[in-house]
Each structure stands twice: as C-alpha cells, then as structure tokens.
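Narrative summary of target 7.
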Amino acid sequence: MRIPHTKPSLAMSIGILLVATAWSSGAIASQATPATKPTSQPQSAKAQFNLGVMYDSGQGVPQNYAKAVYWYRKAAAQGNALAEYHLGVDYSFGQGVPKDDAKSAYWYRKAAAQGDAYAEYDLGFDYSFAQGVPQDQAKSVYWLRKAAAQANVLAEFALGADYYHGWGVQQDYIQAAKWFIISKAGGEKLAINALSLLESKMTPTQIAEAQRLANQW
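Modeled conformation, tokenized:
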C-alpha cells in the first residue's frame, strides 16, 4: 500500500490558476493507491517497505517518521520503487528528514524510472513548478504523459490544462478537451467544470473530434 499525502498536486495548482480564467479549482487529495504492486524485489525489501509504512501511518506501532524513513531507505537500497516514492514524499514534506525538494525530486525520479505512475506524476509537478529541479514544461509534459498512460487521472487533467494554456505543448483545444474527457471518465471532479467551460469555446465539430480521440485512448 501507499500512504496518502497532501502535497498540493499539479492539478490543484493548475485548478487555482484556472480560477483567473473562469475555470474551476479545488483541493485534491494527493495520491493514494491500492495494494503494493507485484515486483521481483527480494522479500526482505518488501518487508522493509511494509515496516516503513507501519511507522509512517502508526499501524501496529507508534507513528515515527524517522523510523519510517530508515526502513524506506533499506528497501530503496534494494531498488524497491514504492520505497523510493515514499522517500520522495518524506523529503517533500519534511517528514522524518529535513524538507528538501531536490532530494524529493531525486527519489521521485528513481521511482519514476521504474514506471511508478505516482512518482511520474509528482515529477511532472516538480518540473512544472520548479520544485527541486529547474522549471522545464517539456519535461513536465513528458512525465505526465507517462503517468497518464497508466490512467493517472490527475496527470490526465494536467495534460488537458497544458494543452489549454500551451504549457510545454502547442495550444490545442481539441487535445485539451480529449484529456479532460478522459480524466472526467476516470472520476476526476476538476475535469467536469473544466470540460464544460472549455466546450463553450469550441465548435460542435471540435467537440466531436475530442470525444472521438478520447474514445480511442
């Protein structure tokens, strides 16, 4: 499992920006996810990661972020992507370690390199808002696409906003609507109002094309 965290997400930040242009915004609970994915990691790495989760959440033991980080490091040293991701979260919030956006991005990148969709999304956030890495909208879009390919609804929403604004991509309302449609279908509430307001600026032909593209995804 993962520990939910409340880092302001890229989608939330974009939502806030959209207020100024008559879009919607809202608080988004950050990434929570189902059970640990099957991996080829040694059983010791899985056990170390699970101990980290227990100390992180206070499940069965007193909550202790420093001990959580200790066990995440043990698991990460064996290449456990979930442990790498959680270290990124801990450095982002300063939980059990001093807050350090550069180290947070480092661990997100390690996990993202193994295909962790949540790390890919958060790394996209970091590149978009220059948190621990130089601002680079093209790299942000790159990582958001990877997360969206794994059905991460926040990444899908963020790609819609990127196409709407022309951040890291050429501005394209049809592509923006496509990603909002996909994100909405996945349950992202921000996409509902965003799509409605965007469609008010589009022709019926453009809307139909966006829907066709979304259906093909």
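The chain has one domain: 10-24+44-216.
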